[in-house]
Amino acid sequence: MASVETAAEHERILREIESTDTNCIGPTLRSVYDGQEHGLFMEKLDARIRNHDREIEKMCNHHFQGFVDSITELLKVRGEAQKLKSQVIETNVRLQEDGKVLIGSMEELKQCRVQQRNIATTIDKLALCLPVLEMYSRLQEQMRAKRYYPALRTLEQLEHTCLPRAGQYRFCSIMAENIPKLRTLIQDTAMTQLRDFLESIRKHSDKIGETAIKQAQLQRSLDSSVTLQPRALIGRRGRKEAAAVTESSGEGGSPLSEQDSGILDVEDEEEEDVPGAQDLVDFSPVYRCLHIYTVLGLRDVFENYYRKQRRKQARLVLQPHSNMHETLEGYRRYFNQIVGFFVVEDHILHTTQGLVNRAYVEELWELALSKIVAALRTHSSYCDDPDLVLDLKNLIVLFADTLQGYGFPVSQLFDMLLEMREQYGEILLKRWNITFRQILDQDNFSPIPVSTEQEYRQYTSQFPLQDPELEKLSFPKKLPFSEFVPKAYCQLKEFIYACLKYSEDLHLSSTEIDDMIRKSTNLLLTRTLSNCLQYAIKKKNVGLAELVQVIINTTHLEQSCHFLEEFITNITNVPPETANATKLYGTATFKDARHAAEAEIYTSLNAKIDQFLQLADYDWMSAAQSSGGLTTSDYLVDLITFLRSTFSVFTNLPGKVAQTACMSACKHISTSLMQLLLDPEVRQISIGALHQLNVDLKECESFARAGPVAGFQGDTLLLAFSDLRQVGLCLLRGPHSFVSSSFCSPSSSPHCLSSASSSSLFPPSLPVFIFFLHHVVFMFHSSLNA
């Protein structure tokens, strides 16, 4: 059974081998070798091969006779064909020999007629081709001479007139094929010249702008009193434009010159003969390229390209350098490039028909104006030098006037200058703050000694001093104020001049200029000068003499405020009575400074008194001595001496200030001595200590009674020591004197009434009364011990 299945499987494999492509029998053979009967399979394969060989042999034997017969017939046909070929060759040779003469005659006749026809045709065609050749020769000459506009005209005539008449010739075809190439060459060459022109004016725009600004500056200096026309002709601009328009309207030639450079070589001329900005530029590449593209029917392409490139150049021109704010030259270069750019655009606008229009130029200017204003705001904010800001302002004004002469609106630039006015004012305030502080630091805070009339006139010319009594004095004499006053007054005037310089050429009315100057001056007075005076008053190690001199200085500066008003009125020609006119706040500023100095005097004087009082060393348990043997305490002698010398300096102060300082000092002494008695650490006081305190108090009352400062009525200054005197009397008279007349009733003892009336005491205050009660115990205890 297994052998039958094996035989069937081998039979199937053989059929598969016979019917399958040899490339795919690999898996089949693998199945044979994977089995165990591959020897039997090889036997069957050999048998199958032998069978096929027998079948092939039978088939060959069957068809062999027919093949042999066919070969025999083919050999017979070859012999007959060779005979026929020999006969044909012989016949052809005889025919050629017989017709040779006739053929020669026919050929001669044919050649003659062809020559006649060709000659006639050539004559006709040459008559049509000679103009083409002449026109092409002219075209080549124009191309070599770089006269591209007439070359383009010749090319148009050659293409549309001459070549169609000439016909289809090879040279015509070559010319026709070259015409688009020549047209493209002319177009590319014109565009190359335009690119060179654009690159050249981009590089030289600062030179063009510098020339235009110089011309505008010269025009403004010559015609400062004449109103400028909206669009003045600069230099030889009118003649240049007329020539450009005239030549651009021509038909047969290239517009303007054939120079390719965009910038002409112009030698430096004197200021009296500054060349016009357009005289520096050769615009012929623009006109030439415009006409060429118009002839080519590509005017729109050219206009779009020109405007696109100029917009890109505008963005480059309007991009300021990062360090532009460091020097004025950076701003000048920036403005020159912008002016140069718009001078070129303005010239193109008025010398070409439609290459750029008014709307395009205005749109470009609006874009430029916004970027210019933004750049100036940004870079000017970094500037902290008022001189540079002032130079920048003048440069912006000149820049605006130049472009305004070409018809560009510049109101935004003047609005920005008004904004910069605030920044300029802040920078001025910072500089003058430093100046005032330097003056204060260098001042010696002492009256100015004057030894000659010349010196006196010198100081009075710097500061409006009006003191008839001082003028009557003989030399040498002293001015009441220190060096700070004339220097500060001169600096105030310098500040006003600096503000006025910025307001020039801004097209402002006198009222507006006056208002700006007054507001800036008020800021200088109320903020800068006030802070400097406060700095001088509050700084450490300021003596009373310096504070007194500050008060005297501020008093004279306050009196000079109306002279500042007159000074501003004279330079602005605006009377101070004008409605809505800003008033100067100098009076209030100097009053505040003086009040601060007065307060500082009171504080410093009290602090100095405290320093002396710290030296007080009372022996509260000292033994009683006779009144004749006691002397004033050393610290109090030094204190009184100090006060007398100090108040002698107060003679130049206003009376109320000196009186207030003196009263404040006396009250402070009285209060401080009272505090010594009320000190919690003082638990017992002897009679000897009270007598010593009484001697010191008498010295204080003697000082007050002597009137160290003039102006007190009667014994007003003694009231500062009244409370202390009550305490002293009460303690010296004993416990029964603790009750004053205000505490005695009609039924009181005669001793109480007499004691109260003889002492002439004021009703004691509550702290004094408490102090008395505190010491009753001590006095009573002392009496018992006695």
Automatic annotation (TrEMBL):
Region spans: Disordered: 237-269
Keyword Transport on entry:
yes
> Gene Ontology cellular component?
exocyst; plasma membrane
What processes does the entry annotate via GO biological process terms?
Golgi to plasma membrane transport; intracellular protein transport; vesicle tethering involved in exocytosis
Tell me its family: Belongs to the SEC15 family.
Location of the Exocyst complex subunit EXOC6/Sec15 C-terminal domain = 412-727
Quote the protein name from its UniProt record: Exocyst complex component
Q: Which residues form the Exocyst complex component EXOC6/Sec15 N-terminal domain?
A: 44-213
Which controlled-vocabulary keywords does the entry list?
Exocytosis, Transport
Keyword Transport recorded:
yes
Q: Name one Pfam family in it.
A: EXOC6_Sec15_N
Biological role stated in the UniProt entry: Component of the exocyst complex involved in the docking of exocytic vesicles with fusion sites on the plasma membrane.
